[in-house]
Amino acid sequence: MRKEKGFSLIELLIVVAIILIIAAIAVPNLLRSRMAANESSAAASLRTIGTANVTFSSTYNAGYAGELTEMARDAGGAAASITAADLLDAVLGGSTAPVKSGYSFQYSASPVGAGPTSTTPNTNFTAGATPVGPNSSGTSTFCADQSNVVGRDVSGASTAGGTAGNNCDFMAYPPM
After folding, report:
1. Which residue has the higher pLDDT, 45 or 148?
2. How many CB atoms within 10 Å of residue 58?
3. DSSP secondary structure string for all residues of 82-108
4. From start to end of the chain, where are the E strands?
């Protein structure tokens, strides 16, 4: 009688079961890590919007930008101007409601809104970030205003700023 070399079916099933157990433990941690990265990206993007607005205000002497697209690069490659200031990347400044890293961004300025001038400047703005897929792409909602302090709402609210007059009084992020 000769002895066969190799693994038995039982040994292979045990190895597969161990791999499935490890995967069941690792996948939720991976998803939580991705959500944390998305939330950090959203907060950083709001800080970028705030910093770009301060630069816009000091460069063009017209208060804050009326729309995110005013702080983007001109599509035709023209020099920076009050309508295309080249202060935001193509994702954040590419549309009036951009989506980046699983978050949707809203923006509004007041009292004038779009097209500020030195005689009718926007004196404040509110920017918000909400998760595209709640509990999937993120769990927190973020907002920032002209104070450039990013606020965080962990209650699961579906909107964050994006409307003129919102005072964005969420808890400061990251917590002090």
Report:
1. 45
2. 8
3. TTB---S-TTTSSSSS-EETTEEEEEE
4. 99-100, 103-110, 124-131, 141-145, 150-153, 171-172
How do residues 22-36 score in pLDDT, each as one tens digit?
Answer: 999 999 899 999 999
Give Cβ neighbours of residue 82 (< 8 Å, ≥ 6 apart). Answer: 60, 62, 70, 116
The DSSP bridge partners found for residue 127 are: 107, 144
Residues 66/116, Cβ–Cβ less than 8 Å:
yes
Q: Which residue shows structure tokens 């978050």?
A: 103
- Enter the pTM of the model: 0.79
Separation of alpha carbons 161 and 104, rounded Å: 12
Alpha-carbon span 171 to 152, nearest angstrom: 5
Q: Determine the Cα–Cα distance for residues 81 and 88; give it in Å rounded to an integer.
A: 13
